[in-house]
Amino acid sequence: MATVTFSQVPLLFFARISGLLVAVLVLFWALSFKSSFLPRHSSSQEDQGLIYAALHPLFMVIGFILISGEAILVHRWLPGSRSLKKSVHLCLQGVALASGIFGIWTRFQGKDGIVANFYSLHSWMGLICILLFGAQWLMGFLSFWHRGEVRTVRLRLLPWHIFLGLYTYGLAVATAETGLLEKLTFLQTQRNVSKHSPESMVVNSLGLGLALVSGIVILAAVSPKYEALQTKPIYSTHTKKCSSS
Fold first, then answer.
1. Which of 23, 96, 119, 138 is deepest in the core (most CB within 10 A)?
2. How far is 4 from 186, CA to CA, in rounded Å?
3. CA distances from 80 to 16, 75, 137, 162 (A)
4. How far apart, in whole angstroms, are the C-alpha atoms of residue 102 and residue 45?
5. Residue ranges of the domains in the chain?
């Protein structure tokens, strides 16, 4: 059974606390500032787009980023066999991928269509992130269900799998940051929202929260495991003298 080190417990705790803070902030933003997600001159028909516009940050932040971060941490806290951890990791990443695809789909439900919404750095990074995440998940799915591969091949691919997973997670957070900046710039220039308004403070706090939770998740993922430290041989001057005598 896997053991979590004492040093990892604070990381896991702060990862959950910061993730909860981010979830509360994005929910508060979407529910309390509904007018920010409506067209400037909105009609009753156009108001129906509020649902899709508000669902985009909810699914991309909570469904995609936070759940994928939890999937990364599965190997650090979940007890049981390696197969169980891999299956839970794969399922959580599948939920995150589905949330990301649906979140992007909601952005294309406006009257302007796909091309009009695919123009910014945020949209380009988002598409690249989803494609990388989908390829990463597919590779993990095939590896999980086809375990007859040569062990040396699997071991060679594992570092790349870990690297691409952390890179894609970091790219997702960076994409969300560009989206928040884009939205806040639009609100301040087109809607005359003050730079020191409550909504500006909420959006800025959400950006800082995402940066915090991503740093904690990545640090917890790359920190050494307890089992590895326990099995690592310890050499001392006394042992060297005994072996040489």
1. 96
2. 45
3. 21, 10, 22, 21
4. 22
5. 8-244
Under 8 Å between Cβ of 110 and 49 = yes
Residue 238, exposed/middle/buried by CB under 10 A (0-12, 13-18, 19+)? exposed
For residue 3, what are its two tokens? 């053991």
Say how many C-beta atoms besides its own lie within 10 A of residue 151's C-beta: 8
Rounded CA gap, 207 and 201, in Å?
10
Spatial distance between the Cα atoms of 10 and 8, rounded to a whole number of angstroms: 6
Structure tokens belonging to residue 140: 């993990």
Tokens read off for 11: 């990381």
| Whether the Cβ atoms of residue 122 and residue 175 lie closer than 8 Å to each other | yes
Residue with tokens 């790359």: 222
Q: 64 with 99: CB under 8 angstroms?
A: yes
Class of domain 8-244: mainly alpha
pLDDT 10s digit of each residue in the chain, 245 long?
Answer: 445 554 567 888 999 999 999 999 999 999 999 888 876 655 555 555 677 788 999 999 999 999 999 999 998 888 888 888 888 999 999 999 999 999 998 887 765 656 667 788 999 999 999 999 999 998 888 776 666 555 666 677 788 888 999 999 999 999 999 999 999 999 999 888 888 899 999 999 999 999 999 999 999 998 876 444 444 444 444 444 444 44
